[in-house]
Write a structure and sequence with these properties.
Its cofactor is L-ascorbate. GO terms for molecular function: dioxygenase activity; iron ion binding; L-ascorbic acid binding; oxidoreductase activity, acting on paired donors, with incorporation or reduction of molecular oxygen. One of its GO terms (cellular component) is membrane. It holds the Pfam family 2OG-FeII_Oxy_3. The chain is α+β, with helices and mostly antiparallel strands. It has two domains: about 60 residues; about 230 residues, q2cbj1_9rhob like domain (Jelly Rolls, Sandwich). Strands 2-3-17-13-20-12-5 form a seven-stranded antiparallel sheet, covered by helices on one side. A hairpin with a 5-residue loop joins strand 9 and strand 10. The chain is elongated. About 35% of the residues are buried. Bound molecules: 2-oxoglutaric acid and fe (ii) ion. 2-oxoglutaric acid binds next to strand 18 and strand 20.
Length: about 375
């Protein structure tokens, strides 16, 4: 019996051990299941956290935009779309010119004043002109009136190099900064640029020949005629919209082509995105207009124009041929978003009520025949 009991006891032990092994396996299996379930859950949490963060980021990019006043895809024609805004007190600090000084303020957009073909012609002109030089950073300008052209980290004057005098002094101006360059034309027709305050003599460059030869191909009389026509039509629509006498408003400086891309800024001149008030930045401006020469979304991304109002921001999306215009005081604080891709072209054409700040339409310098 004893051996049987023993066998039985052994048998019971073996069954117990087998049970334990099975339980152990099941437990291990269970814990590996639990482990992978935990991993999947963690992954899901991480993914949804990522998704939420991305969503928050994307919406935060847009969250400062309360309203799109005019999108690129729509066509505002023939009448401008007008948004009235209460005039700021800025104009009280200046002499008032009845029939011109803003009494009604606001902003308006029209696609009915400049055709897309005209915008394309002007854009080609901007491309050719700015290809002569251009800023090292993302924002270049070509001022048609003064001839100031971004070059590297500074500006050159493509017009002043023309008169056949030997020594010229001129000022290149953008915003509040004025650079005075003295240009000496040497016997070889090369020019030496020097600027007061810099002890070292700067560049000996073939500017005179370079721009002289290039300019003939870049600007024709027709181009300047087109600028004049467009300027006249813009003046008319501003006068109509704000109830002004167009004969009492004058083109003022600066009036320039701008080319913006996503290259990192190299100097302050490239930092076009800062909020500003045109009347403060440019002084003489009473009405600002912007003629866009390229399309938001297909020629470039970013680069929307943003009115920064107290109760939110309102955008205008550039469209080739679109004219956006507004009274230049602090009722129209604005900025341009950074361009994130592509190239954005525009022209700034602005008007003053003060005859002393009037400029004549840009024209080809004497001696250059288109
Ligand atoms: O190009 C734009 O949309 C605006 C430029 C601007 O604000 C300016 O020239 O003062
Ligand atoms: Fe501006």
């Amino acid at each position: 019996m004893a051996p049987v009991r023993q066998r039985n006891a052994k048998g019971a032990n073996a069954a117990e051990i087998e049970k334990k092994i099975k339980r152990g396996n099941a437990l291990r299996q269970g814990s590996s299941w639990r482990g992978s379930r935990l991993l999947v859950a963690l992954l899901l949490v991480a993914l949804s956290a990522c998704g939420t963060a991305t969503w928050l980021y994307v919406t935060s990019l847009d969250s400062d935009i309360t309203e799109t006043l005019v999108s690129q895809g729509e066509l505002v024609s023939p009448q401008p779309r007008v948004y009235s805004v209460q005039c700021s007190e800025d104009y009280d600090n200046y002499k008032r010119y009845p029939g011109c000084t803003p009494q009604k303020c606001g902003r308006a957009v029209t696609d009915g004043v400049v055709t897309r073909e005209e915008a394309q012609t002007l854009r080609r002109l901007a491309e050719r002109g700015l290809a002569l030089a251009g800023s090292e950073g993302g924002a270049s300008i070509l001022d048609l009136h003064s001839g100031a052209l971004s070059m590297g980290k500074q500006f050159v004057n493509i017009y002043s190099l023309f008169p056949s005098r030997n020594r010229l002094q001129h000022h290149v101006q953008k915003s509040t900064q004025t650079i005075e360059l003295t240009i000496n034309l040497n016997d070889a027709g090369l020019c030496e640029l020097s600027s007061p305050g810099s002890a070292t003599r700067t560049n000996l460059i073939h500017h005179r020949r370079y721009f002289g030869e290039q300019l003939k191909d870049v600007f024709t009389q027709e181009d300047f005629q087109l600028y004049r026509d467009v300027r006249g039509r813009i003046q008319e629509v501003i006068a109509q919209t704000f109830g002004l006498d167009p004969a009492l408003m004058y083109l003022t400086k600066p009036t320039f082509f701008s080319r913006i891309n996503s290259t990192a800024a190299k100097t302050q001149h490239d930092e076009y995105w800062h909020p500003h008030i045109d009347k403060v930045t440019y002084g003489s401006f009473d009405y600002t207009s912007l003629l866009y020469l390229s399309d938001y979304g297909s020629d470039f991304t970013g680069g929307r124009f943003v009115f920064m109002d107290q109760n939110g921001n309102r955008t205008v999306e550039p469209r080739a041929g679109r004219v956006s215009f507004f009274s230049s005081g602090s009722e129209n604080l604005h900025r341009v978003e950074k361009v994130t891709w592509g190239t954005r072209y525009a022209i700034t054409v602005s008007f003053t009520c003060d005859p002393e700040h009037a400029i004549s339409d840009p024209a080809l310098p004497r001696g250059i025949h288109g």
